[in-house]
Amino acid sequence: MVRAALAFTAVASFGSAVGRTLVDDKHSVYEPSLLLNELCQKIASSISDASDVYDAASVNYLEDISHWGVSSTQLAACSFEPGTPEDVGIALRILGETQTPFAVKGGGHTANPGFSSTTGVQIAMSRFCDVDYNPATQTVTFGAGLVWDDVYAALEPYEVNVVGGRVTGVGVAGFTLGGGYSWLTNQHGLTIDTVQAYELVMPNGTAINVTETSSPDIFFALKGGLNNFGIVTRFTLKTFSQGQIWGGVIFYPPTSLDEITKATANFVARNKDPKAAMITSYNYLAGVPEPTVIIFYDAPNMPDEIFDEFLAIPALNQGIGVSTRSYFDFVKCILIPPPRRIIFDSFSTTDYSLPFLERIVEEANSMAIDTLLNTTTFLNYDVEPFLPTLYTHNKTPSAYPPDRTRGFMPFEIYFAWELPVFDQVVQDAIRGTKETLQKYAIANGQSDANLAVYPNYAIFDTPLDKMYGANLPRLREIKKAVDPENVMGLAGGFRF
Ligand SMILES: Cc1cc2nc3c(=O)[nH]c(=O)nc-3n(C[C@H](O)[C@H](O)[C@H](O)COP(=O)(O)OP(=O)(O)OC[C@H]3O[C@@H](n4cnc5c(N)ncnc54)[C@H](O)[C@@H]3O)c2cc1C
Ligand SMILES: *[C@@H]1O[C@H](CO)[C@@H](O)[C@H](O)[C@H]1NC(C)=O
Ligand SMILES: *[C@@H]1O[C@H](CO)[C@@H](O)[C@H](O)[C@H]1NC(C)=O
Ligand SMILES: *[C@@H]1O[C@H](CO)[C@@H](O)[C@H](O)[C@H]1NC(C)=O
Questions:
Q1: Mutate to test the pocket of ligand 3, among 87, 137, 195, 209 (most ligand atoms within 8 A of CB)
Q2: What is the radius of gyration, based on Cα positions, of the chain?
Q3: What CATH number is given for 10-124 in this structure?
Q4: pTM, whole model, 2 decimals?
Q5: What is the 3-state secondary structure (H, E, C) of 46-60?
Q6: CA 359, 316, 247: angle at the middle one, nearest 5?
Q7: 131-242 and 10-124 share a CATH fold
Q8: Could you tell me if the CB of 9 is within 6 A of ligand 4?
Q9: Structural domain spans, the chain
Q10: Which of these, 110, 162, 277, 423, has the minimum number of CB atoms within 10 Å of its CB?
């Protein structure tokens, strides 16, 4: 999804089309049914002063229902901003008893419609915004309403960091509950590998702290199992010391596709240094290639050789963009302007050989022309290489990935468009392009049907066994024990 900003003409033309219409629904003021209205009133009169319920006329409501992509937003009957785990519990009990649909939103970055939005009660976690660093235990506890930028900003003065998001603005909650691929993953694993505790409001309304020793089953299930087991209010993560880093975003002209592809294949084949990470984004705006590469090295100085090939390719922002800076500054410069309608899809690979990358470019080029006719504004094929050792940093099992015995990498595809009438066409197109490339990768020994798909990149109807594999029966057992009434089934998302 890396569509880095600063970009030139591209951002101007794409950005102007963005507008900030919150939803594509024709109603200007949403009027919920009487029943839902009463339900919202009931929550409002049951909660403490730390929390509030808002109707469609309020500014808070608009903020609470809004998402990064408009296609992930729905008009809720009301929004609820809980300020304490107890109030989350009160609401969950009322919602469960009345069988009212609801949604939980962290940073609102899911591309899947209905996963963190609803026409029932929108729970927005924004009041859980504390960041509490504990130097003695080298951990940090932070609220589920934050974006990673907030956590990085709070930790920077202590020269420590967490394994979190790679670009600006992404929510901590969905990211962490789904897995979490970071610039630091080659060194420390996924975000879930660094979680020490979750503060969880169980579906029956009781709040508990979940650790590996206190509730091993729920701890396992929350590591990749998203919103199936309750509502998380706070995360406690391990911290790592963090100095200045070297890196940045490089924008290339359309004519550099071949050179970038060769440089990427060479990086994947040669890099052994866990401090080095990169993303090659094959972006297309209105059919025109806008390749972008982000390079990262976890030390103040440019590493020997690893990135030389990328630096030698003439760039549009030659000489600027890549520098020594703080980790937070680096993430802040990777700004992806919010598009309108969006969809992601993904499969996993064990390698990125030159022929495979060339096949990706060939496919992306042809899709860019094909979908142009159907008003798809923006296409992104993201190559996110990791070392084969990325899953060895933690030995305890987690819901995702179901198999840690071999290294694999999520390959992510992201399309953005303007008009709701094209939703189906574009969703079919992204499935088609994924299948084409997955077939190629499997036929050429770089993927197989058993490699788990990353839940946070997977399209909404991805079968659960494709993401959770052999863990699925255990996850279903835990789900039954934690949520016998299936309260969380009233919220959208991948359902166990
Ligand atoms: C621009 C962009 C960059 C990204 N970069 C990366 C990346 O570098 N690495 C990576 O791994 N992924 C990345 N992603 C994917 C990202 O992990 C998902 O989009 C994730 O859903 C974002 O979390 P959120 O809190 O913003 O989402 P939301 O839309 O708020 O929530 C997503 C899901 O989590 C559930 N949820 C949210 N809060 C809670 C809670 N408190 N308790 C229980 N369930 C909850 C929601 O119900 C929903 O099902 C990126 C996505 C985008 C759009
Ligand atoms: C919710 O479930 C937990 C664990 O099963 C239990 O300890 C707790 O008492 C339950 N809470 C309520 C309100 O029933
Ligand atoms: C979880 O632990 C923290 C720190 O010990 C504590 O402040 C908090 O109240 C606990 N939450 C619950 C729900 O027990
Ligand atoms: C574009 O639209 C045409 C006509 O509706 C359709 O036949 C074609 O499959 C679409 N192509 C893509 C890539 O969506």
A1: 209
A2: 22
A3: 3.30.43.10
A4: 0.94
A5: HCCCCCEEECCCCHH
A6: 80
A7: no
A8: no
A9: 10-124, 131-242, 245-468
A10: 423
